[in-house]
Design a protein that fits this description.
157 residues; alpha/beta; 4-stranded parallel beta sheet; 44% helix; 13% strand; globular
Length: 157
């Protein structure tokens, strides 16, 4: 039976590193390093082919013909997502699909209800390190070498 692993955690906590470690050199695990926005964005779009064919995540894991084929046999958003996972695993000859999106952490209860054979890998990083990492990725391009000194030290309260 196929399994789906959701890699969860706060943004900038290391979910990309974890998914890379899972997928690299694994004969059983298939995954994509990008982030799915299924529960945060895709479910809120109308259920039509364009909602999936124009979605960057689905564009990366299935081609246009695969999208049309999977859509034709799916009855709703969730069915499309599960069918896509099964299709990718069959195509790649793997049994575990690794799905990464820090924002899906908020939807863990829905995920438990929506998937039969599901596991979570949750990464927890020092919250000060998360804030600093977010600040570096957002502010460095804007401020060059000027960076708020209070963010140079990590302190846990």
């Amino acid at each position: 039976m196929n399994k789906t692993i959701f890699v969860l955690g706060a943004p900038r906590s290391g979910t990309t590193l974890l998914i890379n470690m899972l997928v690299m050199n694994q004969s059983k695990i298939y995954g994509f390093f990008g982030e799915s926005q299924f529960y945060t964005t895709t479910l809120r779009r109308p259920y039509k082919l364009e909602s999936f064919s124009e979605d960057r995540y689905f564009q990366k894991i299935i081609n246009e013909e695969e999208t049309k084929m999977i859509f034709a046999k799916s009855k709703d958003h969730l069915d499309f997502f599960r069918n896509t996972i099964d299709h990718c695993l069959a195509r790649e000859g793997k049994s575990i699909f690794a799905e990464k999106s820090p924002m899906h952490t908020l939807f863990y209860k829905e995920i438990l209800n929506d998937f039969k054979n599901v596991e979570f890998m949750i990464i927890n990083r020092n919250c000060c390190a998360n804030v600093q990492s977010i600040a570096f990725t957002r502010w460095i391009p804007l401020t060059s070498d000027v960076f708020p000194s209070f963010l140079k030290e990590n302190k846990t309260v």
